[in-house]
Amino acid sequence: MSRGDARVAELEKQVVQLLAVIDELRQRLQQNSRNSSKPPSSDGYRKPPAETKDRSLRKRSGRKPGGQDGHEGAHLERVEVPDAQVLHEPRACAGCGGDLTGAERVGDGEESRQVFDLPEEIAVGVIEHVAVRRCCVGCGQISIGSFPQGVAAPVQYGPSLHALGVYLQRLSASAI
Q1: Tell me: the pLDDT tens digits for 51-64?
Q2: Contact between residue 142 and residue 123 where contact means Cβ atoms under 8 Å apart
Q3: Which end of the chain has a smaller Cβ tally under 10 Å, C or N?
Q4: 38 compared with 139, residue with greater pLDDT
Q5: b vs e for 30-45, b when ≥16 Cβ sit within 10 Å of the residue's Cβ?
Q6: What is the signed CA dihedral for 98, 101, 107, 111, rounded to 10 degrees?
Q7: pTM
Q8: How many Cα neighbours within 13 Å face the side chain of 166?
Q9: Model confidence over 22-44: pLDDT tens digits?
């Protein structure tokens, strides 16, 4: 074998080795989180295309999502006579800061909110919170009392009733 033939054989051997390395590198580049055990975060910006098969068997109804027109919905209703009423008086005039002790009560426009909650005894009690409006004798500014923290809706459940619901839900989940 001549020196030139030996060199050609050596170069052919190197070409075969390099082609094997190139093939292995191509296979590595083609791996992603869907065809290997790599995490999705390793996909980077070259995420694989989404699968073309439908994920859900549900068919589109043509309606908009959410409650449909004419659907009444379900919500708490106010009661005519609450079990208790708590008045929330304004302490000072919202305009000038004057004392409102003994000021005239302005009945029109007062707001009230009802909270359904469990009192100490096992019965649902309804407390109506009323933000009283008072007219300042000094400047005529009408001020209104503020509702306590957590009383934000016209009708709502109280914290004890919420806690009971969570407790009962966890109790029923642990029974399964």
Answers
A1: 666 567 778 888 88
A2: no
A3: C
A4: 139
A5: eeeeeeeeeeeeeeee
A6: 70
A7: 0.39
A8: 7
A9: 999 998 888 888 888 888 888 77
